[in-house]
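Moderator note: this is an archived Q&A kept for reference. The question asked for a predicted structure of one protein chain; the sequence and the answer are reproduced below.
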Amino acid sequence: MRAGRSPDGVKLIAVTKTVEIEKIQEAVDIGLRIFGENRVQEAQKKVPCLKSGVSDSGIEWHLIGHLQQNKAKYAVRLFDLIHTIDSVELAEEINRQAEKIDKIQKALVQIKLSGEETKHGVSEEDFLSLLKRVKGMKNIQLKGLMAIPPFFDDPEKTRPYFRRLRELRDKAEKAGCELKELSMGMSNDFEVAIEEGATMVRIGTALFGERSVL
């Protein structure tokens, strides 16, 4: 591939926000196995339907949207990986709910790399302390970092954000937090994200077309 990396080193997350179950089933039929949802409520409708219609057990569901604490207990039951831990309070609630069902919840910490008010995430100044707190929680397995940069028509403009997330991952590893996963890059900029070290890219529009408005 263009980035000089093995395709095996990058996981494709098919983003199914507003995508009907029939289209998701078609994606399964052609071999896709990792799906990302933005909202717990939408996943509650899709996850059981898809699991009942798929013969193999290789399907993964990832939560890639902001998670409110009061939805944590549902998220823990639905998702294999939660990308969006952004506070100690949320992490504690996820840990508590996972303990209740004897689950080790895999998770990423979301970092806010821009000043956009619509974006969620822990600040760069606070991310190390959050990582260390999460690392000490028995029912959360910390896997990596996630970020959503501002949208640009020119994908090259996202490169500094992806590079910064990789640098923060390296900083965390030097501080004793082993983090293999970098969830960054979407339909318009995933190639740049892969060049900068993404291990997970979140692709919706390029797979399913422009999303419907709910």
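Archived answer notes: Strands lie at 11-15, 34-37, 60-63, 81-85, 105-110, 140-146, 181-183, 200-203.
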